[in-house]
């Protein structure tokens, strides 16, 4: 399955590329609300709602660690990437939607 139309529109990179980054140690941020996170999320994800990203940034010592962000459609993830890049996190990638990432998750 290809990326959803909203994920492509939001600037999301391909799910396969995201999984490769995750495999090599990228931190995964779910920028959806806590309620959305509680319903479903990637097991390796940390929930940092978009409206709390500024506070999270202040606690991060390593701005060089790759980050993969996702949300419900990719739009909030892109907003999060924009915020991170504006604060010196040059390795932030929009992973698009949770659905796209789950669908394209490697089996091995």
Automatic annotation (TrEMBL):
A Pfam entry, by short name: Rhodanese
Alphabetized Gene3D superfamilies for the sequence: Rhodanese-like domain
InterPro entries: GlpE_sulfurtransferase, Rhodanese-like_dom, Rhodanese-like_dom_sf
SUPFAM superfamilies registered for this protein in UniProt: Rhodanese/Cell cycle control phosphatase
Ranges where the Rhodanese domain occurs: 22-106
Official protein name in the record: Rhodanese-like domain-containing protein
Organism per entry: Shewanella yunxiaonensis
């Amino acid at each position: 399955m290809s990326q959803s139309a909203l994920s492509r529109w939001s600037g999301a990179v391909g799910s396969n590329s995201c999984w490769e980054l995750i495999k090599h140690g990228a931190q995964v941020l779910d920028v959806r609300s806590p309620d959305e996170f509680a319903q479903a999320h990637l097991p390796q994800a940390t929930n940092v709602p978009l409206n709390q990203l500024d506070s999270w940034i202040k606690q991060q010592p390593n701005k060089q660690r790759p980050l993969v962000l996702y949300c419900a459609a990719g739009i909030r993830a892109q907003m999060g990437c924009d915020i991170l890049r504006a604060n010196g996190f040059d390795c932030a990638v929009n992973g698009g939607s949770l659905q796209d990432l789950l669908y394209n998750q490697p089996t091995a």
